[in-house]
Design goal:
Largest sheet: 8 strands, mixed
Number of strands: 21
Oligomer: single chain
Strand content: 15-25%
Shape: globular
Structural class: alpha/beta
Distance between the termini: 76 Å
Radius of gyration: 29 Å
Amino acid sequence: MNILLTAINAKYIHSNLAVYSLKASAGKYEPMTELAEFTINNQADDIFRAVYRKKPDLLFLSCYIWNRNEVIHLAENIHKVLPETVIWAGGPEVSYDAEEFLNLHPQFSGVMVGEGERTFYRLLQHYVDGLLLLSEIPGIVYRDKATDGESHTADRSALSAKSESAEEAGRESQILSTGLPELMTTLDELSFVYQTPEDFEHRIIYYESSRGCPYSCSYCLSSIDKRVRFRSPELVKRELLFLLEHKVPQVKFVDRTFNCNHTHALEIWRFIREHDNGITNFHFEIAADILTEEELEVLGGMRPGLVQLEIGVQTVNERTLEAIHRTAKFRRITDRVLKIAAGRNIHQHLDLIAGLPYEDFESFQSSFDAVYALKPQELQLGFLKVLRGSEMHRRAQEYGIVYRGEPPYEVLSTRWISCDELLRLKEVEEMLEVYYNSQQFRYTMEALEKLFERPFALYEALADHYEAHEAEGKSYSRMQRFVILRKFIRETVCAGKRSAGAGGVPEAMGEMMPDVREEPRRFDELLTLDIYLRENAKSRPVWAEDTAIYREKIIGFYQREEQLHTYLPGYDGMNWKQMMRMTHLEHFTYDVLVSGKKKEIWLLFDYERRDPLTNDAAVFEINMEE
């Protein structure tokens, strides 16, 4: 029998842990079980062709909010041309309303609900060997075809079911449920899914050391399963060592709150620190407010870039936090985030959610400004998704939440925030992604922030600029983004214009930076700094100073470096011309790295040595008179 587990991922770099775990749990049926992974960016025809050519007897489809429509359409078309293929779905997007899903989509034979490894194995026992009746398998909702009022299809294997007449197959079916599946008491029962990590080259490895979440966030499906179960630390360490030995680029823990068990978290973090291979990065989703001093000490000893942390703040509005059952105090989160940041060794990703109960437009701006002030490496401005099965879904009408009827069920308006205001936040989100989260405009943006009454106003002003120049929603190269930002600076900031958005450029701007109107050159140099920090750009920005007048001076510097290697010790054996091609030397008339005041300096950019948190080139101030 040909069994196909299929996943349609959001991006190529992602892998689907669910289907890999199901395959690993197939036991004696594993040799006949095959995986097929695609992305939502693949053409529907290409996915259909690949699945059709497999001619599966059993087809299992993993369903999430990002691929629900693609999964449904794929199953519908496969059923038309391979009517004897038995099609099952699983995943959070179909588990909550499985009966309704089967009634709406007759191409599916059933849905696996909840934890699926044991369920999958038992389904294979039923379909391959006929050892179990479907009615004996916990954790499924299935379509039962009936004859003369008696259930019979559920009690036969798929092979015998194929012999049904067309008349039988067309008879009405009933939808039956066997209830929720029994949960494993420990994740040690699960097999390790990454036996051949070379199959995951250039992709993220997803790893699970616990299931369940002790918290009750009303917008999250993880709050449904409060029973947290763990994989034993010894087993986790053995498996992580395998991944470390194979030097995989990134391991992303999918644990909902990794540090909810401090002993578990500490043991794994210490292991990672002690077995660092200098390459692999580990990602954890944590609750910052519960970090202990001991955990902070361990994290502080990590190699820069070894670990990155995702921290859900969501809002600083106390009424909202109470409504969504978030108990974390923002002042405690602030304390922990700043202590981590002081070590300059860990990438921090902080989340906000727009559209939550009791949060209006002004309140959200306050949440934005408060979290932005913490200066995480990444600030995600997300929008509430009203997931089926969540408390937020049940109370949507009470809160006046209007949301999209199709995945991802994103909020359109609430009693507190209008659709116009949420669309405004979408525009701010785009500017935040481009000019903050990319970390490619860092020095320019830090200077601009000082000229606005609040951080949110800067990104509103940028959104206004894009709209005024009909630039929103378009694709631009990195250099084009710099050109747009420079135009914004000259038209909005250096011209002293106030933004149409909240806050805008302060009237007292001239007092904060007296030379800003007379010295747009300073911002040009900041833009140039940001360009060369990230790459040795082949095309020099049009506003940058002509370096031809310094050519002899620059050549003299590299000739001295060929002999002395004062600043470039890693370039032994290279001549001065090679070093000049591989690095960049730039003249500035402002101290762009520190004070911002007028001071002639030379900066050397070394692209072989980079900051592991920002990916910026190493920068050295050069004494050109040596």
